[in-house]
Design a protein that fits this description.
Elements (H helix, E strand, L loop, with lengths): L2 H20 L6 H5 L4 H4 L2 H4 L3 H13 L4 E5 L5 H9 L3 E6 L2 H13 L5 E5 L12 E4 L22 H17 L5 E5 L10 E3 L10 E6 L1
Parallel strand pairs: 1-2, 1-4, 2-3, 4-5
Antiparallel strand pairs: 5-7, 6-7
Helix pairs in contact: 5-6
Length: 215
């Protein structure tokens, strides 16, 4: 098999995988993660949302009327891609590592994944008022790890910065308008402010996934 035919075969397989995802068929993390470079795939088990969790979280946002959802600490946009493919909601992700954003944007463009925007930046670049849904997969915990456990050393991390970012999210959620949805996976290091109602029955069966809606 020539390199060209091998590349074409891989492309067809990946497009078929995305079609399966859109149709509600089972897609494994191993298969989905092949959309991304190997150096990123190796981080999946620890840092990126599993496919089945992303699908369920996306369903919750859609069910509760969220139209624009922000994934804070989006990595290469795995959650946003899966969520956009499986719902008609618009998903944005903010990520401070430029190489992850670049990889994610390439996948979104190559496979024409709709309603996904990946932002290279920090919380300083986020207009929280523009969103009615927020997804957090414990995005600040990495700052509490030893440097040997970081994804890489391309950005400054520290416990002090992590605490500050958690406080900023708490303050933004406290100001959020009625109906705002928050979905966390393994928490986010802080407390959901008063005014949000926890709906545990809607995440039953998906460990560590939690849903709150502002009343």
């Amino acid at each position: 098999m020539s390199r060209a035919s091998g590349s074409t075969s891989r492309d067809h397989a990946r497009r078929a995988l995305l079609a399966d995802l859109a149709a509600g068929r089972t897609v494994s993390d191993l298969a989905f993660d092949r959309l991304y470079p190997e150096r990123i795939r190796k981080l999946s088990n620890r840092y990126w949302t599993p496919v089945h969790v992303a699908r369920h979280a996306a369903f919750l946002f859609a069910k509760h009327g969220a139209r624009r959802v922000l994934d804070i600490g989006a990595g290469m946009g795995k959650f946003c891609a899966i969520a956009a493919i499986t719902t008609d909601v618009e998903f944005s992700g903010v990520e401070q590592r430029e190489h992850l954003v670049t990889a994610g944007r390439e996948v979104v463009a190559t496979y024409a994944i709709p309603r996904v925007t990946l932002i290279h930046g920090t919380l300083d670049d986020v207009d929280f008022d523009a969103y009615d849904g927020f997804y957090l997969f414990n995005p600040f915990e990495e700052g509490t790890f030893a440097p040997s456990q970081w994804v890489d050393r391309t950005i400054p991390l520290s416990e002090e910065r992590a605490s500050g970012d958690v406080a900023r999210v708490e303050a933004a959620l406290a100001r959020a308008r009625r109906g705002t949805c928050v979905v966390t996976f393994h928490g986010f290091g802080g407390a959901i402010p008063k005014g949000f109602v926890h709906l545990p029955e809607e995440t039953r069966g998906v460990p560590f996934l939690r849903l709150w809606v502002k009343d």
